[in-house]
Amino acid sequence: MGNILVVYYSQTGNTRRMAELVAEGASQPGHDVRLRDIAEATGEDALWADGMAVGSPTWMGGPAWPMKRWWDETIIKAWGKLDGKIGCAFSSQGGLSGGAELTCLNLILLMMNYGLLTFGVPDYAGKRTTLHYGPTSVRLPETEDDQAACRLLGQRLAQWVAVMADGDATRHPRFAKKT
Amino acid sequence: MGNILVVYYSQTGNTRRMAELVAEGASQPGHDVRLRDIAEATGEDALWADGMAVGSPTWMGGPAWPMKRWWDETIIKAWGKLDGKIGCAFSSQGGLSGGAELTCLNLILLMMNYGLLTFGVPDYAGKRTTLHYGPTSVRLPETEDDQAACRLLGQRLAQWVAVMADGDATRHPRFAKKT
Amino acid sequence: MGNILVVYYSQTGNTRRMAELVAEGASQPGHDVRLRDIAEATGEDALWADGMAVGSPTWMGGPAWPMKRWWDETIIKAWGKLDGKIGCAFSSQGGLSGGAELTCLNLILLMMNYGLLTFGVPDYAGKRTTLHYGPTSVRLPETEDDQAACRLLGQRLAQWVAVMADGDATRHPRFAKKT
Amino acid sequence: MGNILVVYYSQTGNTRRMAELVAEGASQPGHDVRLRDIAEATGEDALWADGMAVGSPTWMGGPAWPMKRWWDETIIKAWGKLDGKIGCAFSSQGGLSGGAELTCLNLILLMMNYGLLTFGVPDYAGKRTTLHYGPTSVRLPETEDDQAACRLLGQRLAQWVAVMADGDATRHPRFAKKT
């Protein structure tokens, strides 16, 4: 069984809605999922998790400062102890080309700094929607495809956690084939 | 009078269409605009320009390799001589969240390396469309807003060129006010 | 005459020392230079400036959260009003390959979001030291070359401000030649 | 047993030397290591590998174009089939602050696009040297610390491969403790 943390900051509710969809996608048999606002998420949550999805609105082309503070201060005692856990990112933004990919990139850099293994998803969640560095959404994820992208991120995270933390290679297509 | 170069690489025609729209936006009275495929663009074009907009499709989350080669090899004699010219970027991609912002970012890093002053646009080109790091498009820029974003990039580039290269401060809102 | 703001966050004094050197380099005849800790810097300072250099320590591979908050909240009323001002970045870090280039990159993205024209410096400040995306320093800038890189950033900023804000093209080598 | 590919592009030999040190660090009991110039590395090598370290010199603030072409064209049939393999990056540059961190970042983005799990290393390889996003070197890795950073990258890669591909949790400190 693997432990999955979906942790987010949200002021308007847009990123929170994405987080709920990611958590929904991650809720696969045998996994324990915690959905947490950073106001309540602690270093203990991060240590508990085998994998985490991290979401922030895009503010000025990057993660909102409260999210940055969470990594800089709140969970700093976990630094170097998250080594090898699995992480991924998502972000909402005010408009297309508004910087949400850059926010995902920055969340990934934060996780790499802590030692996590990070990933994006090559697959498409719809005909014109992918999540190569994490799903992005203009405000609320309203279209089917935007929502599917969030769920797919959670699902893929759950698969990697199964392979990595459980050593259950049958849980992921690539490893299943290999085995 | 200012010189503007819109230079692009395009395999499918998507980025070329963006380039045409950027050139259209840049074609303001008193400016000379060159629209060039990198197959024909030379270091002389780069030296001639007071400002340039650079476009590439997003391949694997970054500029297509022929565009990278153009900077690495084709115009390398212009390195250090483009100092202070003005540059901006645009990119097409296969799907939303496909990396086009990251391609813009990389084009900007290339220009910074050569010494250009680079910019994005805070304004919105439509209710849900901006171009903070350059306009992006999923395949062809088909919507009004996607097209407006490309034109706005060209227009803003022309304004900066007027201020910077011509010293004509009346050509840009901010400087006009100041004067 | 141009106005230059050197604004920084510093906890240990390392980034402050870099800021002092940048301010020293920017202090050229006819320029007015303000050196400000973000604890005291306001939106008015940003509006006053024709050019700004922004420095932060590298925390977890990016700008320290108080610096992010400064852009997200403190000076938010200046958003969209800094259009066309000139900006550049610098950062100190705990060790080589510690993320200081990524911090510079993020500071540049913040400035682009606000509408500033941003730049790096192609020149070398020493045989093995450049500042292509802004100078970086491991802890205090102790070597001659590290210090020269900081001064060079300030000097180049002052030159661009002279060209851009004053329309005094004779102040920068490239434009001087052209004129 | 895990398969490790160290793949690099090198014109001057600087990045090749880094690659040799990474391969040395990765050569742990039970692992099979291939050291390959991209001129000879194929998609088959990438498919064979459980983990890969990718190195490029920094050209104009990013990976050299032949390295980009390798991902864009040479191994394109492997796209989407490298899902879940483990990847990391390294780069040499002409001078400090020359963009090598940005090159590592771009190599990581390329790997994420292909579906790899990517990582950096929180640990320090020396008092003033880390490799948070991969080791970087000014020209040849000549100091003890620069060389230690390269070896540490290879060693960490080998550990992750052991955990992930072999399911041998005893091979990595974190998982060993847990088990």
Please tag this protein with its features.
two-stranded antiparallel ribbon, Rossmann fold, 41% helix, seven-stranded mixed β-sheet, 26% strand, 179 residues, 6 helices, homotetramer, alpha/beta, globular
Brief synopsis:
Chain A has 179 residues and is of the alpha/beta class.
Could you explain the architecture of this structure?
The structure is a homotetramer of 179-residue chains. Chain A has 179 residues and is of the alpha/beta class. Chain A has one domain (2-178): Flavodoxin domain (Rossmann fold). Chain A is 41% helix and 26% strand. Chain A contains six helices and nine strands; from the N terminus they run βαβαββαβαββββαα. In chain A, strands 1, 2, 3, 4, 5, 6 and 9 form a seven-stranded mixed beta sheet that branches. Chain A has a two-stranded antiparallel ribbon with strand order 7-8. In chain A, β1 (2-8), α1 (14-26) and β2 (31-37) form a beta-alpha-beta unit. In chain A, α1 crosses α5 (144-166). The longest helix of chain A is centred in the last third of the chain and has 23 residues, at 144-166. The model of chain A has no long low-confidence stretch (mean pLDDT 93). The interface between A and D is medium-sized, with 32 and 32 residues.
